[in-house]
Task: structure prediction
Amino acid sequence: MLCGPPGAGRTAPADRAVRTAAAAGALTLTAHGHPAETGLPYAALDLLAAELAAAELTAGPAEPAGAPAAARAGRLLGLLRDLTARRPVLLAVDDVHHWDEPSRAALAVAARRLGPRCPAALLLTADTHHGPDPHLDGLPRLDLGPLPAAAAAALVRGAVTHGLATATVVTAWALARRDATAGRHDRAATRLLALTAPGPAQGHFALRLLAVPCLVEACVRAGRTEEARPAVREFSAWASGGAGDHARALAARCRALLAEADGGTPDTVVDLHREALTLHAAADSVLEQARTALQLGKALRRRRRPGQARHHLREALEGFEHCGARPWAEEARTELRAAGADHGGPAVRPPVGALTAQQAHIARKAADGATNNEIARQLSLSPRTVEHHLRNIFATLGIRSRTQLGPVLAARHA
Result:
């Protein structure tokens, strides 16, 4: 398994391994996890088995619906062994953390039973921000971490030397975010101003724009607010032109930061941050939602509204812990202590009673195994509305997936 946080580069080495194996004459098969399929039991495994059967051409009938996990794992194992009778096989599954839990369990069973003499290999990639996986954690793994500073700087120099504008933007953006996270806001602002300035050889237009929210925060915290205004105007025009809820949320946060730096009224600053939070929730952007909640909590604390500040700072802390963003989580804890919180430790999971009646109803159905479409039909809602409710339920309960709903709801009645 190749494991690491988003941006660690899990997919690239997996793709290279697939190309290398194919060039050496092995049969290569690839599969991908998708967030929309995590609630469909055995969907990922059954689709994979169908592809393997098509490659093998002489495979037996598919397992019937409702077949136990062991039977499905056995069928997968048999298909892989049949395929290796002709030539070695490499099966690569990217983003396996998005597979449904029963499929991950069966895949792990098959992986452990391939044995050293079977010329088949499984290569899986997983996002460590999704937490430990009891089924896959026993498999051999390689954890990918951030690049050392010297290596990152060498990448920037190489990209500039070879005229790779987009690679230069992405790498410089990453270095600026690292500087900002470490409190080096002036350095971060300098980097970001250079890469967001309009002109030739500046990389893809969208990439430059997506770096603007980081630029605004760095400039405000470095006392260089005026330098960020042209980029904010360009970003706001793009966001309002149909770029989606995520971009509009970031634009609202940028305007809130500028309004606060300009000495705007507390209501204006708070309203802009709350607008951003609403748009973040619709866009399912956990990390950026946490960053906005942190900014709002800090603004409320500075305006002597500690009770409201603590609410948003706890929301920020939960989001950062969910994403594994440790430096930002520590900043949220520091702000919580400054706002009079009793402790600055890990976020405390709220009780199930914090859910609304409708959320509790949806949570119980999801815990019982109902899909979003089934819940939607039963409650006369749209699947999108059910998905939105589930995101809010997960955020309220401090959990990450519907597989955790059962234990949390059971604990309520224990």
Confidence is low (pLDDT under 50) at residues 57-66. The domain at 352-412 is CATH 1.10.10.10 (Arc Repressor Mutant, subunit A). The chain has 19 helices and five strands. The CA atoms of residues 191 and 285 lie 25 Å apart.
